[in-house]
Specification:
By secondary structure, this protein is an all-alpha fold. 51% of the residues lie in helices and 0% in strands.
Length: 65
């Protein structure tokens, strides 16, 4: 199965706004920035659902704020 690094996708979109800046790649930060609901972490099902929601949001977002 192909692996996709969600934080890498987020970084690539965010770096356009902050070229040489420090980008916070913590899961909580990405959730907040993309306005994805936090369903409770450290639970395999919740983590998978939230990661999928982040992935879908990143695919459908041209630019981040």
């Amino acid at each position: 199965n192909k692996k996709i690094e969600i934080s890498g996708l987020y970084f690539n979109k965010k770096i356009e706004l902050i070229p040489q800046g420090n980008i916070d790649l913590r899961f909580d930060t990405i959730l907040r920035d993309l306005k994805v609901p936090n369903m409770g972490q450290h639970n395999a099902v919740n983590d998978a659902i939230m990661t999928a929601m982040i992935y879908i949001k990143l695919l459908n977002t041209d630019r981040l704020r």
